[in-house]
Amino acid sequence: MMQIRRSQERGQADHGWLKSHHSFSFAGYYDPAWMGWGNLRVINEDRIAPGTGFGTHGHRDMEIISYVLEGSLAHKDSKGNVKAIPPGEVQRMSAGRGVMHSEFNHAPNRTTHFLQIWIEPNVTGIEPGYEQKRFADEEKRGQLRLVASGDGAQGSVTIHADAAMYAGLFDGDEAAELSLNPARKAYVHLVRGALEVNGQRLQGGDAAVLAGDSLLSLAHGEDAEVLVFDLAS
Question: Half-sphere exposure (CA, 13 Å, Cβ side) for 136?
Answer without folding.
Answer: 2
